[in-house]
Design goal:
The complex is a heterodimer of chains A (about 325) and B (about 375). By secondary structure, chain A is an all-alpha fold. Chain A contains eleven helices and no strands. In chain A, helix 5 packs across helix 6. The relative contact order of chain A is 0.14. The chains are: A mainly alpha (about 325), B alpha/beta (about 375).
Amino acid sequence: MPTSTQTTVSGPAGAPDPDSRPASGPAQTPKAVVRPGDRIFSAATLIAGILILLILAGVALFLLAQSKDTINAQISDPSSITGGHGFFAYVWPLVVGTLISSAIALLVATPFALGIALFTTHMAPRKLAPVLGYVIDLLAAIPSVVYGLWGIALAGNLTAFYLWLSKWFGWIPIFAPDADGSVSNTGRTLLTASLVLSIMILPIITSLTREIFLQTPRLQEEAALALGATRWEMIRMSVLPFGKSGIASATMLGLGRALGETMAVAMILSPGLLTASLVVSGNQTIASEIAQNFPEAAGLRLSELITVGLVLFVITLLVNMAARAIVAKTSVKGS
Amino acid sequence: MKLKHLAPSAAILAVGALTLSACGGASATGEEASGGGNSDLKGTLTGIGASSQKAAMDAWTADFTSENSGVTVNYSPDGSGAGREQFLAGNAQFAGSDAHLDDDEVKQGKEACGADGAFEFPVYISPIAVAFNVKGVDNLNLSPDTIAKIFKGDITNWNDKAIKADNPDAKLPDLKITAVHRADDSGTTENFAEYLKATAEKTWDAEVSGDFPKDFGGEAAQGTDGVVQTVTDTDGAIGYADASAVGSLSKAKVKVGDEFVELSADAATKVVDASDKVEGRGEGDLAFDLARDTKESGAYPIVLVSYHLVCSSYKDQETVDMVKAWEKFVISEKGQKSAADSAGSAPLSDDLRSQIETVIDSIKVAG
């Protein structure tokens, strides 16, 4: 799948033999011809591959080194950590908040994104499709600050909707109202932040899956149609199975962005204690916690925030590994 | 954000540059430059500290450098804690801090600045408004205990008895109170909490810090602007923010002694004058224990007082002259006025200014 395999360059596979003379004329032995371009190219790819690993290692080392104070404090005196009950008590609500908001964003964005991608590749009129694709890509270019500002404006208008949700679906814990029957008056809840996140990750998932759907072998599609399949059946039988692993990796990329999104969440969400309900104020995400407390942080607090960042780093790594595993598993079946 | 990591090293670089330029420009020796007019001061001043002073600092820097074109003033608003830390480590010539030095830091100051330690004095007094948005209510009197109960979530409706008792004439609606606090760690929160702790200790039982106590609930918004916008957008909301930023929102009058005091620059200045200095400090240490629970008539006790920290001695005459000129400008009537214009701060009183001037005059060359 073209989009799922990016970074890791596992050394130059066809690296030139260092002893070979530069082939200046027709070689007598049937040895592979190596021109200067080849050497430059293979060296460049090698450097790029090594560099990305070094940078990643550098980030991990930095986070670990800066977390030292927090780890020491956790061992010697857990009550000195913010909240007074040790690091894990401090960080787990943040982890939960981050995962919930990303999960909602993904849940909302993925069906939408697939629908748009299928529409532009298989359903839309020829003239409309590129325009629609362009507009979706434009969404990706909007800075997150702008999403944040828009989200704040949106939040106020969502309160009526949340009130309605809590009235009719309040028996579901995530839509439960406050003790006095009301919801957040400002609408700046985790649900609002998640909805804005879903729009932010929409273009990533859409454009990746669109490229993949376009790669579906024409012959398979036409064969399905020729056998009497309707358009929906054709998509279900040939396009979706073909794109399965691509969809998985596109979703994971979207999830990566949702997990790490900082600015928009920091601006929209009214952070507070962890609450199950998503329509009252409360909850906080890791990235937003760091952004909001970093400017005035010093000493142990700074180290705590960086350790929280380390936790996010680990979560992201785990998510990406899971995504790889899914891609590896499904692509065997798919092809 | 990431740039902030560079701030300490940038500061070191700048100090290095200063030392270099000090060596190079030995001919331009320091006549006493009186904080303005023509000046042969030359070099770079580096400060690190409170972000609350940022707007005022921009104004001071612009005015000061236009009068002293040879001087560059760099201020990185990394936070009060970072400012004190870097200053005491010798990485900056001055620091801005929303809190005065604690006893440990005073000791460290002696290592960083010589026997007389670090000098500190208030330069920036910013009143904090309790701003509200309730349709049909323009004037609101609040006692400290009521404010504490509102922000703690004990009073949840505008027609609560406690609010009515202080506002017999107001038409208070049956409306849910949305109390908005700062989501981020801030000096504004710390000073607001300090005020409530001092005046309504029974209600406000949380530890005072820059983080709003999470257990108290309520709505949170990022930054002063975020709080102001949320309050403006929400009917029935109340929040606290730098007075200069609240815009068209109504500001509550706060009970001091037996009267309700309206927020004003003079009222904010008054509370600093009514406060006592922290005991057991050196002569150059003008740290105040703010009299939050003052009964002084006409004083408005919810203020943020931000300090400048300088050394009692620097290693060369050039730096001494520069620091003197700079700090004198900051506390001068002109400097205070330009801070008031750009940041909405309250000016220092003349009495306090003359005390600070004495302190600044005593800065000398180490040795």
